[in-house]
Amino acid sequence: MKWWNRFPGCDEAVDRDQTVRALHFDAEGWESVKARGDMLEWRDALGNTLHVCFHARVAEHLAERPDIGSLRAFCRRKADTGGGAVVSVEIVDIAGIPCLKAIDKYERRPAYSYEGAITIPLAESHFAIVMNATEHGDTGVREAMVTSHLLDRGELDLSRLQAAGPGSHPIPGWFRDPYDPGYEGRTLCSVSDDARFDALFPDHPLSRVRSCLARIERTLTFDAAAPITFATPLRIDDNAESAAAPSPISAEAVGSLYLRAGKYADVEKVITDAMGQAERTSAADPMSVCRQNLLLGFAYEGQRKLVDAEAAFRKASDNFRAALGQNHPDTPKQSTILRAS
Question: Within its chain, how far is the Cα of 296 from the centroid?
């Protein structure tokens, strides 16, 4: 379903020179619950809300063409003031216009709530598209499943936590800022907030926020009849310092969790994405490639792509022999596993 969202631009209340502003995007699954001159609101079946607002003023944090590092610092301070933390802050291209997309999380015991926002800068005003979602029902399921899985794989270490003695202590490495690992705030992004887990928990509020903003990002267009004047484009800083910190979770850990759940297509996506990134950065570890090919083989096998599965298993076997040598005591064992697969 498509919605036409029209805004009168405050020409009567604030600026008579403002004309109608128009946005067009896919709002399937949302029910309109409120509309006034400069704001529309929708609600979905889970009680999440979506607002689209027109503000007849410049978005202050976007006024001076800041780089992405400055924007992330601004969003971090803003979220921290409200007792929250940033999950992601990035510049995205929407209908040819660089826009700010940010997701925050807030602790609302016994759950977390998430807010995702797209800010579209105009010359003397801006649009804000904001979604809010809070976890309901059995809370903490995503966190518990991810924690248990990573502990089983040895990717989370409780030894330092046990050494800390009695009391409430966070699991080392569980919480961190996605862009500044040294930052310590009241609320922080957690390992389970990794976007690669979203397909396993599609109704989790963070998954819903990400998918909603992604759909708006893909489908939003501007009414050609609306005389919109856009602001000077935001700068996109590709320096390594402004990039997100590498995830502490391996692709193998994520892929194996999907494999347990029987989500073979998601295993394939996670592993092929990781392989592509490793090829681009020349950072492929032979044993990691071996494990990834093994998982890819199981993913193909689960989808009945048997020719692809056999090829992936053979690559895993070759990677293993190349990494440890034909005479390594574990090599025959690994080869036997691959042949049995």
Answer: 23
